[in-house]
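This follows on from our talk about sequence and fold. I would like you to pick a protein and set down its sequence and fold. Go ahead and set the record down below:
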Amino acid sequence: MDRRHFIAVSTATAAAAASGQIPSGGAYAADGVDLTTAAGATPDELRLWYSRPASEWLEALPIGNGRLGAMVFGGTDTERLQLNEDTVWAGGPYDPANPQGLANLPEIRRMVFAGEWADAQALIDATFMGNPKSELQYQTVGNLRLNFATQGEVSSYRRELDLDSAVTSVRYTQGGVTYRRETLASHPDQVIAMRLTADAPGAISFTATFDSPQKVTSSSPDRITIAIEGTGQTRSGVTGQVRFRALTRAHAEGGTVSSENGQLTITGADSVTLLVSIGTSYTDFRNPTGDHVARATDPLNAVSDVPFGKLRQRHVADYRSLFHRVELDLGSTDAAKLPTDERVKNFASTSDPQLITLHYQFGRYLLIACSRAGTQPANLQGIWNELLSPPWLCRYTININTEMNYWPAPITNLLECWEPIFDMLADLSVSGAKTAEVQYGARGWVAHHNVDGWRGTAPCDRAFYGTWPTGGAWLATSIWDHYLFTGDKEALRKRYPVLRGAVQFFIDTLVTDPSNGHLVTCPSMSPEHGHHPGVSVCAGPTMDNQILRDLFDGFVNASELLGEDRGMRDETRTVREKLPPMKIGAQGQLQEWQEDWDATAVDLHHRHISHLYGLHPSNQITKRKTPELFAAARTTMEQRGDAGTGWSLAWKINFWARLEEGARSYKLLGDLLTPERTAPNLFDLHPPFQIDGNFGATSGITEWLLQSHAAELHLLPALPPSLPNGQVRGLLARGGFEVDLAWSEGALQGGELRSRTGVRAVVRSATELKVTANGEPVQVHHPEPGLTAFDTVVGKTYRLSPS
């Protein structure tokens, strides 16, 4: 089917449709308790809840507004809010490009082509890695701790995170008084707010203080406010330059509030609202000199006189405008009545389809909470990190993990949450241009396997892991994919120079493989897998060629649509044709490298299955267009097995969905939903915590229900037999379609398709469909069994029913 079916004809209407979503609202009781839930949901269905406080970080509940994050512990004697701000990075602006690299590049390439991989890798380690070799860490701000004056036995305890409102709450009885706390991170007001209430007057007394593993100073700026101020650490020889200031202000009804020497004291209050604001000096990756004091103070002053109920209402309305776009119902059993941590422990031995729904919507919640327009992208832990030296530095690992973070953005109707990736791409096109010039003598820009807050783009860590020039190219493929989902021609035009620069780098740096005449990347590797003991460096690995085909195709399509760069477009087509083809090895598997090394590779069950990029997220391997490659991809999946880290299992869920084997995909989700891979608070465990597994699982569940990568909308392509009945509303597909589906006994019952761009719809289903609009039949065409094609009109809704 021609990809042109998915080229939009009305950018303005598509953008308008994307922004106009479900109305938000809700009734609020006097104490701010939300009285509404998402349509069709019972009060507990969209809640993570627990019968005791969090005793460790992976039991605490995350809140966030894209920029500010907190982990809420819900204690009774003490409360802890572990705080993050998404620009608190160690170090400061630096240029890691290694000037030794270019002079040694010819010898490195000679060694690779001669099969002297260990020597090539050693020379890369000595002369081609960035300076410093290690990038910089994302770091915590610290903690806000409340110490309560109440003592005695606690009863009727409940702690929860309501995904429908993005509010955490704690409720318990102590000393005959029932206490309640609600905490939220407001995007419209850019503060974290906590409301403390009790059912007895004058019952609330506590102290509040900041602490931090950073070197900070504490103060009391006024009689109701406390502050800490510090600077991100010096690491890898780069001086810490991000200054930060955190403020907490208390407003009490009844009782007294005082602040002295960095401690708030609240005595005998009826209710209290705490407001937390954090500002940093980070302006962009080149400028850490902003006014962190004003950035902390201004949001706090702006809301100091706003009642908590109003703050909450604005927060919920803003959040629901995104969250309510998609609803999923997979059914429920009595297992859903248990606390969330018990459900995870029991999932393998019980029927609990609603936990899948909860986990799915938790993934969408997390993306809304850690990635909003104007913020930093979601890093390896989103925005939630309690350490100064977190695992893998909490960077943007762009050989799979950052990309996986954003797989749910378009398909689960969160296009706005995708925006930080495009902002980062604009940054990388600047910092990566220096690396391209200094280390490769090339035009355009490049980024390797990791990026940090300072947009380091040189190879980093060790040559075994870092010799991979295709990370930026993978990210850049999202520019054309965004257009396929939205038809937004102006966004494409704005981002086109970034796409062009990514292509230009490879036009300049691809070299001829003397063994076969193909144009290849060299040096490179197949992330993060060794093909012989101790060595990964190679030329033209399968994944590179797949990524470059997508990159080149996106550029060619964009340049044609925008009427730009005809000469470069023709050159790109020519270069694309010279890339090595995908190959099937002696075992019937898809080869990971140009040579058939798969059987003797270092780890036959390696967590990275990079060469199946062509199956997912790409569309170069499909069941109907490339059946031989499709069968080879399946063989590879069987060989690799079902074990893996959290994110690796999540990718396998997507792979098996693309292979249209819902039962196998479901089995892997079950492997993920175990205490070994899912923390009590539903965070994915690598281990330890890594957020891409959450996002990858949400993507994989969506792939069970709707796929649009093959120039058609495939309905229920991988529906697991364990989920025979259900419905979903609001999924997005390429071509600018929004889709609702219902199924029963494993078969499609019907659906609706709303057209945002007015392109022709091509729909695949188990049976042919009849289509109506406004109750009237729509003329359809059946180009082959199972396919239904029809023209659409912008803004119109089409009812799909099995014939």
Observations:
- Confidence is low (pLDDT under 50) at residues 1-41.
- The radius of gyration is 27 Å.
